[in-house]
Amino acid sequence: MAVYTEVPDGELAAFVKAYDIGEVVSCKGIAEGVENSNFLMRTTKGSYILTLYEKRVNRSDLPFFLGLMEHLAAKGLSCPTPIKARDGEALRELCGRPAAIISFLEGMWPRRPTERHCQLLGGAMADLHIKGRDFALKRPNNLSLAGWRTLVANTKDRADEVSPGLADTIQDELAFLEKNWPQDLEVGVIHADLFPDNVFFLGDRLSGLIDFYFACTDFLVYDVAICLNAWCFEQKGEFNVTKAKLMIESYAKLRPLPEAELAAMPVLARGGALRFLLTRLYDWLNHPPGAFVSPKDPLEYLKKLRFHQQAKSVAAYGL
Ligand SMILES: Nc1ncnc2c1ncn2[C@@H]1O[C@H](COP(=O)(O)OP(=O)(O)O)[C@@H](O)[C@H]1O
Ligand SMILES: N[C@@H](CCOP(=O)(O)O)C(=O)O
To answer: Which ranges carry the Aminoglycoside phosphotransferase domain (predicted)?
Structure first.
C-alpha cells in the first residue's frame, strides 16, 4: 500500500484552505503506486489526487515534473494538471513533505494489455513527445548509462543470490551498452515509465497518462524502447510482435521515425531492459522486511533482455 505518510484531518483541512477547491468531503489512501503517498480526495467541488512526495523523489526535480504536466495538459494532452493554490503555487508542504494536488483522471489501467491498447499507446506517446518539444525545462535522465553504472556497483556483490551468474551478465551488458549506446538521436521530453499502470483507458479510448515522476530529457525513441519492454511481452514471456508493430506504426504516423532511430531500436530496448532489471534488483535486495510494497520481479527483465540481445535489427519488432 503506497501511503507512507498519514495526513491528520485537521492538517488536511488547513492545507486545502489555501486552494479554491471547496471543502474536503473524503480523502482515501490509494493502494497502488510505489514511490509516493497518494490520496483520492473528494471535495465539494470535485475529485483530486493529493500526493506527498516521499524520500526517493528529489525535491529539486518537482518543478520539472509539475511544470511538465501543466505544459502538456495546457497543450491538450490528457494528463493530470497541477492545481494552484490562491497564491499561484502548486508545490507546497504538508506533514513535513513536499505536496501537490493534481487533477483526477477518469479511466482504468489495463491488467492485460491488448493489441488495440498498444496501438493507442503508440499514438499517445508520439503526441506527448511532440507536445513536449517546446517545454523549456530540462532534466537529465539519471537512470541512463551513468546511473546504471552506479546501480551495478551497488548490486553486483549480491546479484547472484537472485540468479547464479547474474552479476556477470549485467556487467557484460553494461560494457556492451557503454560501447554501443547511440549518440545523435532527437532528444526531448520522455515519460520514461510508460508502463500499463500509468496509462488509463475508458472503453476503446485512451483516457490519459499519469505518473510523470521519472520524466526526463533523453532520446525520444528510448521511450518507445521502454514501451516495447513494458507492453509487448506476454505473461509467459513470449514477445508479441503484432503488438510491437502496431505500437511503433501508430507512433510513427504522428512522429515518423528516422532510419537512425529504427536502427538503434535493439540497443535501446536492451538499455530499457537493463534499466528495469537494475532498479528492480536494487529494490529486491534492499526492501525492508515487512514493507507494505512488494518488490517487482527483476528476472522478468533478464528474460526480456535476452530477447533483445538476439534481435539483429528493428525487424525483430515487426518492421
Ligand atoms: N491523476 C490521477 N487520476 C486518477 N488516478 C490517479 C492519478 N494519479 C494517480 N492516480 C492513482 O494513484 C495510483 C498511484 O499513482 P502513481 O503516480 O503511479 O504513484 P507512484 O508515483 O507512487 O508510483 C495510480 O495507479 C492511480 O490509481
Ligand atoms: N514501472 C517500474 C516501477 C515504477 O512503478 P510506478 O508505480 O511508479 O509506475 C517497474 O515496473 O519496475
So the answer is: 27-256
79: exposed, middle or buried (Cβ count in 10 Å: 0-12, 13-18, 19+): buried
Residue of 1, 3, 32, 294 to test ligand 1 pocket, by largest number of atoms within 8 Å of CB: 32
DSSP string, 17-79: TTSSS--EEEEEE----SSSEEEEEEETTEEEEEEE--TTS-GGGHHHHHHHHHHHHHTT-SS
| Contact by Cβ (8 Å): 305, 237 | no
What pLDDT does 41 receive? 98
End-to-end CA distance of the chain: 40
For 9-66, how does the pLDDT look when each residue is reduced to its tens digit (9 = 90+)?
Answer: 999 999 999 999 999 999 999 998 888 999 999 999 999 999 999 988 999 999 999 9
pTM for the full model? 0.96
Beta carbon of 278 within 6 Å of any ligand 1 atom? no
Mean pLDDT for 294-304 is 96
Write the pLDDT tens digit of every residue in 213-227: 999 999 999 999 999
Give the mean model confidence (pLDDT) for residues 141-147.
96
Burial class (CB in 10 A: 0-12, 13-18, 19+), 249: middle
Four-way CATH pick for 9-103: 3.60.150.10, 3.30.200.20, 3.40.640.10, 2.30.130.10 = 3.30.200.20
Could you tell me the CA-to-CA distances from 162 to 25, 150, 167, 169 in Å, in that order? 46, 19, 9, 12
Domain boundaries, the chain: 9-103, 115-317
| CATH code of the region 115-317 | 3.90.1200.10
Residue 1 pLDDT > 60:
no
**Are 9-103 and 115-317 in the same CATH fold?**
no
Q: 76: CA distance to ligand 2 center in Å?
A: 25
Q: What is the ipTM of this complex?
A: 0.95
How far is Cα 252 from Cα 25, in angstroms, rounded to an integer? 44
